[in-house]
Amino acid sequence: MNKIICKNYDEMSNIAADMVISQVRQKPDSVLGLATGSTPIGMYKKLIQMYKAGQADFSQVKTFNLDEYYKIDKDNPQSYNYYMHENFFKHVNINPQNIHIPNGSAENAEEECSNYDKMIEQSGGIDLQVLGIGVNGHIGFNEPATELNSKTHLTRLSIDTIRANARFFDSIDQVPTQAITVGMATILKAKKIILLISGKNKAEIMGKILNGKITTNIPASLLQLHPDTTIIVDEEAAYKLVS
Ligand code: GLP
User: Fold this and answer.
1) Could you confirm whether domain 2-198+224-237 is CATH 3.40.190.10?
2) How far apart, in whole angstroms, are the C-alpha atoms of residue 48 and residue 14?
3) Overall pTM > 0.90
4) What's the pLDDT tens digit per position in 158-179?
């Protein structure tokens, strides 16, 4: 895994945005795998700025988001669908037909998951996957477990994740207990991956994913198997490595 240690959150966000833009310049109809959470917000802001400055064109880009709570309505401000439109899509020239986010209110979750995998395959697969990481090492909503699912699936959120994500809801009871997430195979099949890690609370997990051991109990450690993953980390998250 390549590793870029940045001074701060802004530098991490700018480097990530530059990598996305250079992918889209090289291949205007790139398929991007996108993430939510607080970490990539700065990257989306920078992408919007670059678009407004005429430096980026998303008109042919296709996107597939990693995950969505289940069940949640797409208009619910806590949904990842809402997050993506507010923080990115509505500000750029992406074709709404090219946006894909798992449907968190699908009646038949199994069917939704298998259709999602089919759509990713039909698009030719992910060219560049952007990832954040949970404090427990989850990517997407692939939670630590003795076995991991390869395909898109409905999953139960761990208590650590429910606690960590409660900050976005009025109370912990409102955090959905399930989610639809793409599986590890889809993530690992992406041609290129960038993993953004920011903040002191991610320093411990950051050390664990770089210690050379690969375990399903830390899903992000599987990224060590991928031939083109770059970790972009700010100094706060990397402090255990630098000191
Ligand atoms: C969520 C998402 C992940 C995200 C993680 C970290 O649970 N499912 O895709 O990477 O949280 O979020 P944050 O960046 O807010 O720490």
Assistant:
1) no
2) 11
3) yes
4) 999 999 999 999 999 999 999 9
